[in-house]
Specification:
The complex is a heterodimer of chains A (264) and B (353). Chain A is α/β, with parallel strands linked by helices and 264 residues long. Chain A has two domains: 224 residues, Rossmann fold (3-Layer(aba) Sandwich), CATH 3.40.50.300; 39 residues, no CATH class. Helix content of chain A is 34%, strand content 28%. In chain A, the strands form three sheets. Chain A has a six-stranded mixed beta sheet, sandwiched between helices. In chain A, a hairpin with a 2-residue loop joins strand 4 and strand 5. In chain A, helix 4 packs across helix 5. Chain B has 353 residues and is mostly helical. Chain B starts with a helix and ends in an 8-residue tail after the last helix. Classes of the chains: A alpha/beta (264), B mainly alpha (353).
Amino acid sequence: MRLEISDLAVSYDTTPILKSVSISAGKGEVVGVIGPNGCGKSTLIKTIAGINVPSAGSIQLDNLDLFTLPKIDMAKRVGYVPQDFRQMASITVLDAVAIGRRPHVSWALSKKDFAIMNEAMKSMAILPLAGKRLDQLSGGERQKVFIARALAQQPTLYLFDEPTSALDIRHQIAVFRLIRDLAHTEGATVLVVVHDLNFAQYYADRIVMMQKGAIVKQGTPAEVMTREAIRSVYGVDMCSIATGTGTYLLPEWEGGEAVETMTG
Amino acid sequence: MDEDIEILYNREWHHRWLVLGALLLALLAAGFYALNAGSIHLSVMEVIDALIKPNALDTQTRMIVLDLRMPRILLAVLTGASLAVAGTVMQALMRNPLVSPFTLGMSSAASFGAACAIVMSSLPLLSLAFMEYQDAFIVLSAFTFGIGSVFLIYAISLRRGSTSATLILAGVVLGYIFQAGLMVLQYTTDNEKLRQITLWLMGGMWGANWSAVILVTPIVIICCAYLLYKAWDLNALLAGDEVAQNAGVEIRKVRLLGLFFCTLASSACLAFTGIIGFIGLIGPHIGRLLIGQDNRYLIPCSALLGALILMVSDTIGRTIIEPVEIPVGVIMYLLGGVFFMYLILSKDNRIFT
């Protein structure tokens, strides 16, 4: 399993959204994508998922060109969890998760399909919700349903667009642990857009830092997430605090620096 | 709480087949009653005889059962089924519970097409050519305009996005435009044609005959089979365009072809029966209450419900104040209005929230 993105560019009308993005990721790797709002993180994820059409560049998965690959074959390889799932009808949780099996079945669901769905729902702790409709759920529960749906698809490449935006801290940790297990234990490749820099540095094997549609830096968390890089991309000063359990990035409140660099 | 989802799914599965079986039985029973009912009363035995050994009966009974009531019932079944299936599928394609062949302006466009065909058949040159094929010409014209309207709406949605508000607005506006065209035709044509158009607009099963049934049956079967075959794609669309795309659905293609087959089926039927509203909304909505959102079951369920509702309504229409017939279109408006009033007023409705 190898993902090779080379010189990818995406434009909306004539405005460039992504500029010459190149990323390569291997089997068993969690790649965290960070960067300020509007820097093109979601566009990048959606383009890899085949939702946006690129204006240049290529994306290859195991030497297969993702743009010419039949949609159904792509669906078996790439699983995507959108950031925004308001576009849904009032289907049941079970029906929603079953959509993940669609690329693999022609009509009826087999015992194997149920076992896979069961596993996916169990890992997201949504089994008790199986019969509920999506519009009866909380935002966080819904987010877990959409993650379970992607898990049921059993892809080799996972694309998560801020998968924990609606979740409390306990579930955030659970989701990131799951993401790490998907990569490290099951050998999947994971690209995940993360806003929380602490989660990014702790759970990602590699970090891609983006700004204004381009990659400014990529490498290990320690290499990428330096004080200078964070200041130049976010305009915020962060300090690194080491304790017995790990290193934490925290913003420097009212340091004066933060507010000024935002405008500059 | 953590029961195995396969058990849950199988329980639903049994429930769904039970509902489908019950509806099928109800449809057969209602069909049998409809063969029986009418201004000329027949005994149960006479109807059974007509069905299994038609030659043993006198010509009049045979004609009533086999040549008058039978094609009428079949056409009602076909029309009800195809309008309900079209409604179900369009609602899934647009992810909007209020979309139907009726609300998307397709009915107005088909009316305009049919009226055009009716009026044009009196033009000196065309009258010779179309005298014998007027029915076919009406079907063709109604269909052409019907499908045209759907493509216009789709074209608008491509420019302005495909939010439900845009689509419904586009449909309503197109509906008005075709309505205007229809009024012009009605105003300028002669009395005979006007009557023909008016009857067509009211929607009824009096146009039923075997050739209509034979013409419509393959179209409806092919369209419904295709749409049912796409049930998984429709399910995926219910979770949003992005999720559907990730599950391998080519959404643009599915939307275009889906709309095309919906319109093909419904305008083929409407061309013979005239405008029959609300079936495309009532069928799917009762179906969802009975069977859920999974289109693999919802499509057949809506088809059965639509067929049942339309056939029963038509039977009521032709028997309630016999020998006078009330057009089934009128009954549908009444029934549909009451049903939707109920949905709006009912506390736990989840369709309009």
